[in-house]
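**Protein of interest**
===
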Amino acid sequence: MPYLSPIAAQRIEAAAVAALAVVVTVAAGYPWWSLLALFLVFDLSMLGYLRGPRLGAVCYNLAHSYAVPAALGAIAVAAAGIGDRIDWLGVLAVAWVFHIAVDRALGYGLKTAEGFEHTHLGPIGQARRARATAGTAASGGPGTGIDDDPAR
């Protein structure tokens, strides 16, 4: 049986959550494009990086954690249960979950204080290229770099 790294498993899981968000949106009678209309709103959290990597990571991670949209979704469901529908809150919660899931499926994980390119799913952008280049150079050639390590 081939090895599936925890990072790959999390990315596959995130893709499934994103697909579920689309299904829930359509099943609830809302247009699928409402997820796309709200998609970039959640990336405003990156503005924290203007004040430094530590604050940037805190702001980004707060906006890219499932906890807040889950709480909003629970409030929307509870309100609907007592007859006081708050549809916009439910749509916002599902769109937020969709955004987080797509980001994680693409490899954009929660950030560390080292900088934007350092995530819990591994390095991204220039940090990933630098790490891969260092691994390939140290190992003797292409195909033998750090990406070949099944523990990653």
